[in-house]
Specification:
With 532 residues, this protein is of the alpha+beta class. The protein is 44% helix and 12% strand.
Length: 532
Amino acid sequence: MSRNKRILMLLAKGGVSQSGIAAALHVSKRDVSAGARALREHGLTFGAVSSMDADVVDDLFFPRERRGPNGACLQPDMESLVERKKRNRKLPVRLFWIERCEQAAAEGRLAYAYQTFCEMFAGVAERMGATRHFIHEAGAKCYIDWAGDTAHLTDKLLGTKTKVHVLVVVLPFSGRFWAEGFCDMKQRSWQEGQMHAFEEFGGVPRMWVPDNAATATNRAAPQVTLVNEEYGRLADHYGAAIVPARVRKPRDKSVAESVVGLVERWIVSPSNEMAFYTIDELGEFCADRVAWLNSRPFSAKDGSRDSVFEEEERPHLMPLPAERYEMCEWRSPKVAPDYHVVVDYMRYSVPCRLVGEQTDVKMTSSTVTVLHGGEVVAVHPRLRGRKGQYSTIDDHMPENHAALDNPWSPERFTSWAKRIGPETGIAIGRVMESRVIVEQSFVSCRNILGLSKTYTPALLERACARMNAASALPSYTGVKNTILAIRAADVELGAAGRRTQPAEPGELVDRARSAGRLRGADAYKRGGDRRC
């Protein structure tokens, strides 16, 4: 029913003032007065007005003799104006009205009033923006997006604020979702948040629908959607497909947009009124709020997100893979003269024979693996924190470097002792275990092991074996005396062996060494023999 017909019907029915009609229909009093004049001039009743067409009613308000020379009001093409408004949202509707007024004047027609023009524009825009409800399949897909609002961490000393970005993963069938905060929006955070969500769900949907973030798609090709390679490897590990949402089409993922709004209202905004000092504290708050929102009953239907998920959606999810995906990065550094490769400002050792060679380095969140020619040559725990740290394995060093690197550590002394022999390793271990503070044994260990240079490693090994067999606690003096005793015994044994061997014919034998030239007891009595 047109607005003019409503005015005439209320006037014909009576009982309401013209001001009341204007207020009820949101029209001007002038239009109501024009309708009352048309009723009086034509003597119309309520029944007659009800049976009239909209065009006839308009003729009563605007008689043809009072219209423009070329007929009725100019009818604007509202659909083209709505499309124009969508392309440039900053264009005001008043500009469209002014343009149509100028066009109507040029054609000798009347133009609609501004209020009527706005009502017509709003009606067409609402009709063109009609939406339909998507029917989602259980376990078929998930939507992934970053929340627009950010939470914050507070520095305890300075009180400064650090932004925390919240990642939201939602299953559209049940509406169950997961939200988690990260200090950045990089690829590692993007993937970690999704892996945590799937572990929380206990399964994986077949299709992932992310927003067109740089971590999800390659923006180099504006007309073609290319999935980020690293993100694609994550999907391959889980056996899922990535189908990014269309650019600037938020209605394609309306469920995600509504859940993001829910997270911003109930999690992000309340968190900004509190003080969180670590990301773990904020994570616990997010997890509690997410569990509460998922268990909260629906307002317009039965059940909750949790109940619908457990009863209808969980059985349709794919199982989690046997091994958790570990994101890796690759580098190709050259081995420096100090037999270390530099990766992310950290230095990791490789065998010294590879100095000057090109290597491949695979980095995960926990380990750094160095490969040369396709073979693994070194594995290190990944270093974090201060730049320029070293991770060095003793076996990678040249022999002359091994004795200089970190001489005051249990590992250094243990490695040194084991290179000499197992008995030496046991002896050094006993020395270190004998002290409550292990550092107190370092001087003794270094002195004992230094005997391998003063004498020989073999003598040190035999001396340690003898002391271990006697259950005596090794010490520098004890081990040294044992070495001297072993060496003296070896010399005596060698001399005895030479005495028992018969002389060869013609061989000269020095018998003076074994001849007895000792004085008797009488030589030492008072007044005894004074021979010189």
